[in-house]
Amino acid sequence: MMTVETPEMTTWESLQDVFEIVSRRGPDPIILSSIPYLPGDEHRHTHFPVVLGPPGRVISMAVGLRAALPDTPLLLVTAADSATLGTNHLIHTARRNIGMTVLMLYSDLLETGDIPVDRTGWTSTGYQVEMEQAETPLEWAIALQASLVGRGSLLNPSEFANLIVEAVETPGFSVIGVTGDPTLRTEVMSRRSDWPEYFATYRAWSEGMAPSPPSSIRPVPPAQPRSSTPARIEVRIAGIGGQGVKLAGTVLSEAAALGEGLWATQFGDYGSATRGGPSRVDVVMGSRPISYPAADNSDILIVLSREAAAAHLTHAGPGAACVADEGTVEPGPGGPLIVPITQLAREHAGTPIATGVTSLGCVAALSDAVALSSLKIALPTRIPERSVESNLRAMEAAYKLTADLIRGNQT
Amino acid sequence: MSTPSFMHSNQAIAEGAIAAGCRFYAGYPITPSTEIAESLSGRLPEVGGVYIQMEDEIASMAAVIGASLGGLKSATATSGPGFSLMQENLGFAVVGEVPCVIVNVQRVGPSTGLPTKVAQGDVMQARWGTHGDHRIITLYPSSAQEAFDLTVKAFNLAERFRTPVILLSDAVVAGLLEKVDIPDPADLEVVSRARPTVAPEQYRPFDYSSSDIPPLAEFGSGYRFHITGLLHDESGAPTEDSEVVARWWAYMQRKLDDHLDEILDWDEILLDDADTAVVAYGCTARSAEHAVELARERGHRVGLLKLKTIWPFGDAIIDQLADRIDRFVVPELNLGQIRLEVQRVVGGRAKVEGINRADGLQISPEQILDVIAEKALA
Q: Is domain A233-406 given the CATH code 3.40.920.10 in the classification?
């Protein structure tokens, strides 16, 4: 049992003694607070490191410090009121059981006037608290299953110091109510030890992981376009969410860059909805670096829904090669080539999610820039292995149908 | 040697952060920045770093400050709504001189706005979003390659100048999938904050008399000092002494203003013989570059000034151009935030015109070309 014999100390001096006691057990404690002036402080300040931050926010600042400093005691000195400003932070820091100790000061330690404004729920004065329930942050901390919740009085310094040391040594999140009322019994109100501490668990989980750039990052060779390739080819694929439009753009741009040695950029425009809303992807590729990434003047336009047909076909220039999914436009002379893309996707891949990838067969048939063989190389890294073969079959079928239609138109 | 890869700009930001030595990320995912969090949640544990999804953006920014004080290069990423929430603690990082990087991938605001649509409406918020006068650094890429390069630069500047650095992006730049050359680590310039060399008793964490940036000791390393949002003296202790505060202001201005050569970054494209200069940044610079290509084909003498550092504003660059340029065209996905800056510097020496929209669509090259051609006909 440690003893502290300093009966007439100010709040700050008493806390300072507690910090000293904590410091004897290892690394310097870091003090976090949002109270610039405590009775007895007058900027004489503790010689320990201090972060004096916005009320409540210091709880989250301590989260970052804990990530950086696994073994340093973190002591938050806060008013109960300012903790409520950071209740959100209190809840989540307790939930993650991040290692720190919050010293929640009862208002008798903060007020120098005659009327204490008690918002801790220990007593109630002042007209506002007659109109609303008092805050009970220690009860919240218990409800949040903090590792240790307790309270004590600075006027019983030895018991109090022991409680703080116990809180610091308890892994995880602890909250201690602090008062200047000598009649308050120092006690542990709640203990919970079967709860993982976030960063300790994180470090154990990540230990030994090796750097491995994700498979979605694809090494590409330097651009080596053929001399016959135009400086800029604009491809737009438009449909609705759930058709795999974005994936199609990714595969096409990678095929252009990896397989054909072209400069390529992919740019998408999606609504908030993941399914059913309009979805569009633009791929611009060519023999020169791409400045503007959108295909406003599409050379190749694929529409996969009625809405997309209505929105984009009218804007297609006279030289544009257009393909519409069956059922999205009325067939007629001068209209787009009609290919049953969704039907091919269902038939070969068994799902309309493959519609976008299937439509790449049309793109390959319409342009020399990206060969079917390049698409075949780009696709496998972007979809599950089990789907590769069926998606390729759908793509090839769309290629063949489109090529046949083009030949038919030419004869 | 470098490794060219195909990736989205948001992923390039994550890779840039890893390459620059970022080892802590706290954030709350939000469209269109989410892929940055997603990438770093996988990459950071692989390199011994820490990723944490916080309860909100206020907490994210606070945790970033804490981790940086603990010695880790730290970052967060968000979009407009989250950027608004970060302003309180961003101010703390400015006053406490805490190095960190905040990425804001812009979408249409105010408030929830158009969550998936592109805008550049937070340019002035980046400059003045936190209350009180202050200096800030803001960079803005327009391609996946620049996203990587400027992320590295953002960390380097943050560490060099002990300041938060904002990396602006936008929904279009974020979604670009392009080739990125990632240099070998040996070829990449990576700056880390200066650490004190004096004994702990002699350490002055805010030495305003110094001509350079005072070193920053990490907390828990034996150097005991205070970091506070209150204005403070050289030891870090709060002060209301107006002489000390005046010295602090002078230092806070000097520390960026005296080093603009290290901070400012821009590209001049076809400006040598130009009479018209398009000034653009982010996704709008891509439209502008294409417009300049098209205009040149039609014989217009027009060039592009692409801003990569937005704040501090490149007064000297505009000033020098204003002596020989007749006309500045400033396309922006806002109502004219940078146009006013250009006008301020030009000071009537040349015409300054804006092209502005904030309806979620991009400015097309044709829209810029029309404005360029208008004048030529007149």
A: yes
Q: A248-251 contacts: CB < 8 A, separation 24 or more?
A: A248/A281, A248/A356, A248/A357, A248/A359, A248/A360, A249/A281, A249/A282, A249/A283, A249/A356, A249/B177, A250/A382, A250/B177, A251/A357, A251/A360, A251/A375, A251/A378, A251/A379, A251/A382
- What gap in Å lies between CA B194 and CA B291, rounded to an integer? 44
**SS3 letters across A116-174:** CCCCCCCCCCCCHHHCCCCCCHHHHHHHCCCCEEEEEECCCHHHHHHHHHHHHHCCCEE
Which ipTM did the prediction report? Answer: 0.95
Question: What does DSSP say about strands B226-228 and B266-269: parallel, antiparallel, or unpaired?
Answer: unpaired
CATH architecture of the domain with residue range A11-203: 3-Layer(aba) Sandwich (3.40)
pTM above 0.80, yes or no: yes
Q: What is the C-alpha separation between B221 and B226, in angstroms, rounded?
A: 13
Which residues from A are below 8 Å from B177, CB to CB? 249-250, 253-254, 265-267
- Exposed/middle/buried for residue B96 (C-beta within 10 Å: 0-12, 13-18, 19+): buried
Containing structural domain, residue B108 = 2-187
Q: Chains A, B: CB contacts under 8 A, how many?
A: 225
pLDDT tens digits, A93-111: 999 999 999 998 876 666 5
CB contact (8 A) between residue A265 and residue B176: yes
Min Cα–Cα distance to chain B from A245, Å = 14
